[in-house]
């Protein structure tokens, strides 16, 4: 498998975590989002959305991150990202999709760029926008976790689809100085995940295109 | 089942279509998004996200529309919203989730309200924003449909998850005067869907809270 991604792209980060959790080996191929390498014709011919990540696997290029995660869980079911029980599956998807749609989509790089140009907003206004959408959904997610009396993970003793989406979003939340002090369930789950090798290896700082990468 | 929704909310419209396709009877309970009835304490106690739609079914309130559609397809599998074949399932989700995340989430009412206040944008600027995100994803979706040589539906001879998400988005595209003349696959699929009773009954104009509703 080949994963075309960018170290700091949170959807690329989701895929790196999921592939690691599944124990699937992959070659990581950096594509620079900031210089828009993802808009090069060679790339958009393979992925008309021009989005990252793109996974080349089983003879096909796939590029929509939530559809990719669902596919990965069906094609490589062990260990599962979704529980067996229908009620638990709904809960797992509810919280994962709330973050993917109500936070990430609105705070994604193309949207932030549009706010800057053509809309002319300052970095301060963009940072306020970013934190507004974080709070609007992370506060009810925290409330749901409290209601469910969640422990180190949303379901059982291992991370699932929710954690795959949550951890990259909290990485971004910290970059934008979002205050997580009133979110004990979120930060406990994050800490439990970050202690796992699958998450550690997937971290942006540990990718070959990261300026933060430590010598191996 | 009880569906709490708003006639013009495209996520409520998704659920009405899906419930009709599954042949599931439900009571439609209007919640006025414009006067923010969805932020009333009685409602947010049941749904901490304060979002529509909310489906009361099997003793539980569920409120994240994509998670709800996935749950519905698992709890009531016939007729299916997703094909059996893994490759076809990926394609169905790719296009459905592209619209749900890359268009709908960015053009959702709370985002448009934020652009107006506090950001102070004019209705013209907001309409341009709306059409920008439509084009950015509908153009590659149309290209994918051409590549797949899609007929009246993305997969087989019946609508699935893609059509459930597409039709409400095109209803909104028309409200915002988006030009669909270069999208023959999208408009053919839309026409095939709108000819079906399940879509007809789900249409915003046919809900009891719509001012357009014709006398029965």
Quick gist of this model?
Chains A, B: One of its GO terms (molecular function) is glutathione transferase activity. Chains A, B: Keywords: Isomerase. Chain A is built from 9 helices and 4 strands.
Describe it for me?
2 copies of one chain form a homodimer. Helix content of chain A is 52%, strand content 7%. The first copy, chain A, is of the alpha+beta class. The first copy, chain A, has 2 domains: 2-79, 3-Layer(aba) Sandwich (Glutaredoxin), CATH 3.40.30; 86-199, Glutathione S-transferase Yfyf (Class Pi), Chain A, domain 2 (Up-down Bundle), CATH 1.20.1050.10. A 4-stranded mixed beta sheet of chain A has the order 2-1-3-4, with helices on one face. In chain A, helix 4 (86-104) packs antiparallel against helix 6 (123-147) and helix 7 packs across helix 8. Chains A and B meet through helix 3, helix 4, helix 5 and helix 6 of A and helix 3, helix 4, helix 5 and helix 6 of B.
Corresponding CATH architecture of the largest domain in chain A: Up-down Bundle
Q: Provide a count of the helices of chain A.
A: 9
| Beta-strand residue fraction of chain A | 5-15%
The total of beta strands of chain A comes to 4
Q: How would you characterize the largest beta sheet of chain A?
A: 4 strands, mixed
Summed up, the domain count of chain A is 2
Q: Regions of chain A with pLDDT < 50 over 5+ consecutive residues?
A: none
